[in-house]
Amino acid sequence: MISVNNNSIETRLAEAKEELTGVRSFPDPEFVSIIKELGFKCELCARCCTKEFNDHVFLLDADLAVILEIDPDAPIPAPYYEFCDQKGRFYVSGYALKTKPDGSCIFLENNRCKIYGSRPLICRVYPYMLHREADETGRVDWRQISGLNEHGSYHCDLSDSECESIARETKAYEEAYIRQIIGFLEAVDAHFTKNGLKHVQRTYDRRMRDFLKGGCELEVFVYREGGFEKHLLRPKAD
What does DSSP assign to residue 234? Predict the structure, then answer.
């Protein structure tokens, strides 16, 4: 759990909407070309299911509905809380999958996913997520990321249809993720305005320090389908 960027809700909302426009306008042929050039093939090493590569699996609302049917205890509040009001209550944009003590996914067993056919969308598109980054000339644009040359095989021969399918599924995930973030920001803004609340970074930092030292519980409001669900988190026992 880390401190958050203290941008205003309005600024972050504008940035998220700009990002959504950027994802939607990213040319499909260009993304297909990137995927084809990378030629990623999974080698079933399961490293992406461990803390070595991913410290949590974020769940879209659609993913959450599926996971709750499989194991109601598997989802937990996502770990990086975006806001904390002056009363010390935290707000986060969704749920994540619980992990084992070693940091691996709760559904990883003998290096295989127990729910592979129903795995979250982020697991399906990994490692083809998009993000903004500068190239060697300094031009900022959308590019593919995650785990390059660190697991799996690259520069394999992928068919055009495979690349097109990956591109469609990845852009669908990115759009759904950003829409969820936009919904969360709008819900926080409305909640704060209605109740006279605001994000206070000093309160965020103080409460997190106390929690990590075992000195307090945390009240966390998790965004889900337009509203918030309250959770009380207790510090881990030594």
Answer: P
Residues with Cβ < 8 Å from 17, sequence gap 6 or more? 182
> Which SS3 state, helix, strand or coil, does residue 214 take?
coil
Structure tokens at 213: 């030292």
Angle at 53 between CA 201 and CA 141, to 5 degrees: 70
Query: What DSSP character marks residue 44?
Result: S
How does pLDDT run across 105-149, given as a tens digit for each residue? 999 999 999 999 999 999 998 888 776 666 677 665 666 555 555
Return the closest-CA partner of residue 140 out of 32, 19, 233.
19
Q: Are strands 83-84 and 89-92 parallel, antiparallel or unpaired?
A: antiparallel
Tally Cβ neighbours within 10 Å of residue 188. 24
